[in-house]
Amino acid sequence: MSKVRIYNLARDLGVDNGKMLEILDGLGVSYKSVSSTIEDDTVDLIKQILEEEAAGGPAQAPTSTPAAEPVQASAPQAQAETQAQAASQSAPTATVERMPEPAPTASPARELPHRAPVVTIMGHVDHGKTSLLDYIRKTKVAAKEAGGITQHVGAFEARTSKGRVVFIDTPGHEAFTTIRARGANVADIAIIVIAADDSLMPQTREAIAHAQAAKVPMIVAINKIDLPQADPERVKTDLTSLNLVPEEYGGDLIVVPVSARTGEGVEDLLEYISLTAELEDLRADPGGEFRGVVIESRVDRQAGVLATVMVQEGTLHVGDFLVVGEGYGKIKALTDTNGGRIKDAGPSTPVQVLGFSENPSSGETVRSAKNEHQAREVVAGRVGDRRDAEEARGRRRLSLEEMMGP
Ligand code: GTP
Ligand code: MG
């Protein structure tokens, strides 16, 4: 029996993946990702559901289901469920409607608006991370970098044909482990870039480990396939030896061959990003309490502290008070990643904030305060806590020195 991947079926039937997953949920078919395969019987059911919906029939309810046919799910544990479901379909009025929804209060997250995925690009030095982003942004950032090596974590917002995607570039140099770890923590999806002529290298393994530790879904981009010495098959085999089995070898790892030079495969990569994002069902509350993370920060001699903050929840407005580490500030200006001044920034927006009094460290959490008084209080509390901790350490050190004698 032939099998079809969920996203392929969605494409063939002209529906989005979210819709497809909704139908599968309704049918009680389990799946691991949009690249999971489903059986022919399930495909028939889905087609029927869609046809009836299109005909204005009962949504998600095939009335003339071949009810005796159990729905085949690829995962064994789903089979019991689907068979039970199928059994319930034998009554003429039975439908494959979903289980009763829990009370709205039990799942408020479902009600929140979607937000753009934050995608981090990680991998070994020179494997083409920045070039790949450049291609996506149609800009030339790599050419401007000192020595062509990414020195910091840059965040970029790209409008792709699949909607807004936020990319975070990370350096491949071995001195930047913490930056990569941070990139993995801020991201919803990790793209692991592996050069087809070089395969798995130390920082590739490290990037994979960061993504795994952060429980971020991974997509592998095998880059530089335009090179004559490119050997994408070797990369796939090497990945398999790390227990990361590409789809075409029967696993669940999405592997996309690309060339940042020619652009080959880049559209596919974007497609896989949006597929994965859909499955993650990313949502945030633009009206909620603000929370963000410092991506990078520097001090400009004239302007002062310029911090790039990723908005995770809520919305930043010019004039808001923010607290980060032991500093606070009132937002004087917000700049988007294209250099344009903006008045506010919602979830999944990387934004440059002008107005911090002190230079925050990358990875620090940013919170908002109602007013300057509250901001000062929060900072004073943090400073107090730190001093207490330092004093305690100082006392320990002193007593150690006393013990050791002159
Ligand atoms: P770090 O930031 O230093 O870790 O490097 P990176 O991974 O960002 O690599 P970068 O984009 O700077 O590319 C490194 C080199 O590989 C540059 O000379 C690029 O021109 C080249 N390169 C990147 N992608 C491709 C590609 O698809 N094909 C070919 N032939 N060369 C590429
Ligand atoms: Mg780079």
Structure write-up:
This protein is α+β, with helices and mostly antiparallel strands. Helix content is 34%, strand content 23%. It contains eleven helices and 17 strands. The strands form four sheets. It has a six-stranded mixed β-sheet with strand order 4-5-3-6-7-8, with helices on both faces. Strands 9-10-16-13-12-17 form a six-stranded antiparallel barrel. Helix 7 (177-186) runs parallel beside helix 8 (202-213). The longest helix is centred in the C-terminal third of the chain and has 33 residues, at 372-404. The chain starts with a strand and ends with a helix. Mean pLDDT is 82; it is low at 59-109. The protein binds guanosine-5'-triphosphate and magnesium ion. The site of magnesium ion has 5 residues, from helix 5. Belongs to the TRAFAC class translation factor GTPase superfamily. Classic translation factor GTPase family. IF-2 subfamily. Residues 72-95 have a biased composition (Low complexity). This is Translation initiation factor IF-2.
Brief descriptors of the model:
single chain, binds magnesium ion, six-stranded mixed β-sheet, alpha+beta, 406 residues, 34% helix, six-stranded antiparallel barrel, globular, 23% strand, binds guanosine-5'-triphosphate
